[in-house]
Amino acid sequence: MTLATPAGYRALDDASLRDFLAGLPDLRDRLGGRPPDWSIIEVGDGNLNLVFLIDGPEGSLCVKQSLPYVRAAGESWPLPLDRAFFEQSYYRAVAPYSEGLTPRFFYYQPELYAIVMERLSPHIILRRGLIEGRRYPGAAAAVAEFAARSTFATSDFGATLEEKAELMSTFARNTSLIRITAEVVFTDPLANSPRNRWTSPALDGLAAEFRADSALKVTVAEWGRRFLTEAQALIHGDLHTGSVMVTETDTRVMDPEFAFVGPIGFDIGAFIANLVMNAIAQAGHATPGDDRKAEADWVLSQVPVFWDTFSSRFLALWDEKARGDAYPPAMFSNPGDAAVLAGARKAFVDRLFADAIGYAGVKTIRRILGFAHNADFELIADPARRAPLEAKSARLARTFLLEPHSFRTPDDIVAAVKAL
Amino acid sequence: MTLATPAGYRALDDASLRDFLAGLPDLRDRLGGRPPDWSIIEVGDGNLNLVFLIDGPEGSLCVKQSLPYVRAAGESWPLPLDRAFFEQSYYRAVAPYSEGLTPRFFYYQPELYAIVMERLSPHIILRRGLIEGRRYPGAAAAVAEFAARSTFATSDFGATLEEKAELMSTFARNTSLIRITAEVVFTDPLANSPRNRWTSPALDGLAAEFRADSALKVTVAEWGRRFLTEAQALIHGDLHTGSVMVTETDTRVMDPEFAFVGPIGFDIGAFIANLVMNAIAQAGHATPGDDRKAEADWVLSQVPVFWDTFSSRFLALWDEKARGDAYPPAMFSNPGDAAVLAGARKAFVDRLFADAIGYAGVKTIRRILGFAHNADFELIADPARRAPLEAKSARLARTFLLEPHSFRTPDDIVAAVKAL
Questions:
Q1: pTM for the whole thing?
Q2: How confident is residue A386, by pLDDT bands cut at 50, 70 and 90?
Q3: What is d(CA B108, CA B89) in angstroms, rounded to the nearest whole number?
Q4: Which residue among A169, A325, A344 places its CB closest to the CB of B222?
Q5: Where is the Aminoglycoside phosphotransferase domain (chains A, B) (predicted)?
Q6: How high is the ipTM of this complex?
Q7: How is domain B124-418 classified at the architecture level of CATH?
């Protein structure tokens, strides 16, 4: 490792990880046996970190450690280690509202920037499962439940301004990852960035057309401005189907290192966009025995499930647990206020849907023309099959951005995808 | 003093202030002579602080010190001392952009929560001057220039996201004063708060009517939500005519202790609301020789001067100094982008005007039905003269809030006031 790192930091390997865990009695007991009995494998397949799975005679753990560079890009793209601090800060902040919906958090070692948490097994990444044609009946609703609970509780409806200020003050410093989002999601994909790539030459024309579309670019830029300024709640910041692990009956949201106090619709739009991209990509995974049409329909059907669950749970929490400084209950003590207040709350949640449509458009385009692509499309090996599906997604995303009023409900999204 | 205060804190008096300044060579030199030669008077007529003016043989100083309670309410309303920290943080943050538009900042003593700054002389409070029927030809434009420069430079257009994050992280902790605004500006005036007062019995009916107006209350609450969430730029937080000192030729913005990263329109709306209230109040200060109609017209004419200066300067700075992460220049390098980008910028500034109208409505109602009133009205001794003018202001404010689309330009405000 040639990059300078703080004193006390070293990238963990099998031996040093074993020593580290052996020195923590609670975690050692959880694994059981003696350190030589533990099996350790490194499985990080994401972009940014080392991820170890540790199995002992009595239990298992997962350790996630920051690397000082973007793993997917190599040491040429350095990245501060402190994202692990923000990830564990997020897990701690949302823990009271997310029991059973995230991996359990056990320990954070600040000098190693290492998080020790529950090893999820036999969970797999939701995105992978969907690509393989499986269904997870409770997943979309669980992610929606998680998003509703965690964002409501940290919003100005569910938190006092002092509580929210504490979150803002902490997470505003997560600038390394906020900058990555600002650049690779909002700026680069429609600019001339060397980090961009797309299925070439098939999509060269589409990429050029999008980059020449000034109206599209100012719309994306306006969503970028709102991403940077709308401090609505503590959000996950990267809530796509690759940040969710599932079994048939269990769903956990993970990888919140991009967390900050931002627009709720950014998370909602990310999840919707990734469901829609998966549904569109299904045709590319068709086999002689399975055209994947039923799977595509099922995935798409999860968009209304997700939104309806999120919106109804958010409104229910607002009804039950309003204690923040926005729309303070003290202002609405007259009997006649209730209906008007309910209408205002509904209008707020409707605006979150409109926000989600905008962010879904942005998040889709970046997956097709930007730096980080989706396995949903990438695993379609033949570019001649992949490119038309990517183009469909990109054009739908442009419609999200330039004709947002055509999308007032999740059913409008479903209908638009089916009409492609 | 019975409230607990940190070690090292004491409320300054003549003797201890003299000792304090005597121990600071630069400031001692600025005053000249020996400490016994200095004259010290305490002039704090605001709500929250001690303010001392110190004159020496060679120069003068002003010292502003936090008290541990709201001065206007007494020790029954405790208030943390740290607002002085935020006030000096604001002066430092905007210093590069506000030369000659604020008092010069010299020194901050953190244990005493005491700020030493330029003594402005022969300046008076703009509000007082306007009440006395004077005119300050450059004042509105200077305040607009200050607001444009300081908010642009600290917005996502003029600052990098790292620079803005630093401001957010610091000023998010200014919760004591943010809470005061949230409560006394947005919540209390339309709720049943013991802190409210109004010209009674004349305005009892109006107060009851407003408190029963559910639509008005949710509109105010929505502006309150936006106040708490729209982190657009470092704002002054209390930019009314009482926070500005003037001579015929010089204008200085002061008292930024309510500063935080919030909606730009909150400052703009505060200043507009206070000009409008002063214009409406002029009739109450009429004398046999001066009906104050000309003064009212002049004050009102400063609304377009203020907005036009602010908006044109903000747009000019955006054109000259765009270096932030919102609407990043890298996205708009095609020749065809320029016109569309200019339109988007204009649209953003137009939305700031709409925001200002909303906040102006909120800030007006609170001055008539809430805790802190305006000298513009308070100095009209006869309630029979005062109440109708306050009622006019409050009803106009309600129109700002419920019929915002009637106010698309500052001339619409001028016309509405003249039609009252």
A1: 0.97
A2: very high
A3: 9
A4: A344
A5: 40-278
A6: 0.96
A7: Alpha-Beta Complex (3.90)
